[in-house]
Amino acid sequence: MNDSHLFEHQAMATYFKLNIYNEEAKYAKNAAQQAFALIDDLEGKLSRFRPDSDISRVNKLKKDEQLPLDFETWEVLKLAISCHIESNGAFDVGVAEHMKIFRAAKEGILNEYETFKALEKAQNSKEESSLFVDPDQPRVYCVNPGMFFDLGGIGKGYALDKIDALMKDLGIETYTLSAGDSTLHIKNNLAIKPHFTYPIAAKQDRKIVELSNISVSASGTFHQGNHIFDPRTGKNDFKPEFDRVWVAAKTSSYSDAFSTACFILSLPEIEDIVQTNDQIEWVTYAIDGKLTTLRKNQLS
Amino acid sequence: MEKTNRRDFLKRSSLFGTGLLLANPFNITANPLKAADKVNIAIVGCGGRGSGMIFSNIPKIPSANLVAVCDIIESRRERAKERYNAQYDANVKAYEDFYEMIEKENLDAVAFATPDFWHMQHTVDALNAGIHVYCEKAMSNNIEDAKKMALAMKKTGNLLQIGRQRRSNDRYRFTHQVLLEQEKVLGRLTHAMGQWNRSEIWTQQPNKNDNIDIKQLNKYGFDTIDQVYNWRNYKKLGGGVVSDLGSHQIDIFNWFLGAYPHTVYATGNNSYFGLEQADTMATILEYDTPGGPAIGIYENISNSRAIGVYERFIGDEGSMNISESTENKIFREASIPEEKWQKFVDKGYIANLADMKEYKEKELGDSGIKETAPQISYDIKDMSGMKKVYNLQAHTAHLYNFVESVREKETLNYDAIESYKSEVCIYKIHEAINAGGGRIKIDPKEYDI
Questions:
Q1: Residue-range domains of chain B with CATH
Q2: Which of A16, B207, B211, B344 is in the most buried spot, having the most CB atoms within 10 Å?
């Protein structure tokens, strides 16, 4: 039996890599097929770029209309709301219209002045809107339209968590799973693999971290440019305090969402989250090329 | 579209943040139907498609009451039962034997997500027992059995809907009814094209906790474990890529063109994966449509996912790309003046994708001299003019249409007779591929039931 079997899949506008340890090759392949089918299925439900997805339908709801949701859409929206509250609004899935405007500006459809005004309009409309996600049944209600969902900041993390449940069903105990290298989900039977090692790097600093049964996500500007705007203001003129932020959490949904949020939060706000949020294990940030790690009871 | 009582809602709701709510502000009656008004339905087959019906489709259909699931693999049916009962506080039962289930349960309807070779017998027996049937495509893996199914529907008067879900997809229905038939946006249709590209043909195997006894499964027509999990790859059990994938898209050719092909040319082979069924195929279909001759061109690739799955319709005034998985794109021929299409925009049927008029500075939509703007293409905007918009994912909408038809609130979008006509040309494509490639003429009488 080979030590590991690596599989790759393109979906959600990125690639997923699944490395399964301590299993027969055929069984690992079978598991990877099921995992990737699950990702495709989730993309079909959660992507705002899929015209038939739940999220596309939610985004088209008119005043006083309601819509039944898939169980998974309901689950991820509830998680998104929790992350929104726990990050004091720094994580927000209600920004699809803003994203559409950025894209139009990039493609030359809107000029700078129009883009600025459009963002103002989208933000006002969002602030006046209200959508109700029923906590008791998979259903959403539109009280006032004007907010449009984009699950880009949590959808991939959520997909990794769903695969975690699938792997448990399949009896697979040790694997690594990454979504576009920005979120990494680690599951390991300690007897087989005590930990996995990964580097995290800043301009003048580099660390090797030992990861065990944890999820880690990163957000930064180095690879994707200044793409993170501040949903609290609806503007993209935010000057990040950090070069990059890594968030380790119990679930990938949380690490994914909070890596986005922490990038625009202040250091005291991040310290408070690390100290009080049960889901968050540690946060590492890079400022001026140097890495600093915050853990519970070990803040800077 | 369901409406809420906004006044009651606002009275008791609490807002937070930018308007996302997670509270229980009032008792919304999401499903006002009484149990007696609901359709008692069972799902047969708890694999990929069956799970989709159980967990994604049924819960969104207020008039459907899932009473039982059935699968010959114990772990699969028990997992489905337990998960559904836990998620929806239900009391669904699980059966191995289909006939025991229809004997014991008071079923109005049954939905089959089973291997093709089982469809005919179960369907005919259910229809004869007074149970309405929803059957996943293909109807069968041979033309004779497909015909028996359509005839059973005709004879019993019970409903038989076949699972080609594009037929209940709002965008496809709108395209057919409003854009093509009513407005003739594309002019005269001359070509239909389609592709289904995927990375590989999966070969599945049991999970560790699937305790399978092949001797037990022999009585259901399977010789090996591989046949149970990968029945699509065997000619005696399924129809391969042409039935599984191509039939969805070629059926849309027939629907949109308003005709069935009089000639098919087809070839294919299993040279890449070496399975019994072809993994690569291509076909050309010749039509005499009400508007004149038209050609259909269809391909299926199983070792490259690039480009994905789409259908493309070409007319003499425009063309359209449509797909279940990606956004629509409608292109106007440069010879057709923009003003001619403006009326479709004004009616709210289509929107210029590069428009964003709501954010433009000038009423004319002129943003001044700036970076190069993208090519003009259009998308479907509002589905106005449609009597019924499901606003549900196509698989859910198709099953919803079936359940509502059982309740006599709708009529079937795609009954077995309509499906049979499309399957005739699918079986002819099979015939040509199995003969090593060829041209087959189809007598119009062959489409009759």
A1: 33-166 (3.40.50.720), 168-388+417-447 (3.30.360.10)
A2: A16
Of the partner residues A51, A85, A137, the one whose CB lies closest to the CB of residue B328: A51
pLDDT digits (tens, 9 = 90+) for B150-165: 999 999 999 999 999 9
For residue B22, give the nearest of A45, A69, A135 by CB distance: A135
> Which of residues 167 through 206 in chain A touch B, CB cutoff 8 A?
169-171
Residues of A in contact with B324 (CB under 8 A): 52
Cβ distance of A132 and B10 shorter than 8 Å: no
A239 touches chain B (CB under 8 A): no
pLDDT at B204 (0 to 100): 86
Tell me, what amino acid is at A184? L
Three-class SS state of A70: coil
Closest Cα to residue B400, out of B63, B126, B13? B63
The complex's ipTM works out to: 0.87
Task: Summarize pLDDT for B380-416 with one digit per residue, the tens.
Answer: 888 888 989 999 999 999 999 999 999 999 999 999 9
Top-level CATH class of A58-149? mainly alpha
CB contact under 8 Å between B20 and A64, yes or no, is: no
Nearest to B19 among A57, A85, A130 (CB): A130
Q: Is A89 on the interface with B (CB under 8 A)?
A: yes
Cβ-defined contact of A49 to B356 (cutoff 8 Å)? no
Q: Which residues of chain A have pLDDT under 50?
A: 223-224
**In chain B, positions 369-428, which contact chain A (CB-CB < 8 Å)?**
370-374, 391-394
* Span B64-107, pLDDT tens digits: 999 999 999 999 999 999 999 999 999 999 999 999 999 999 99
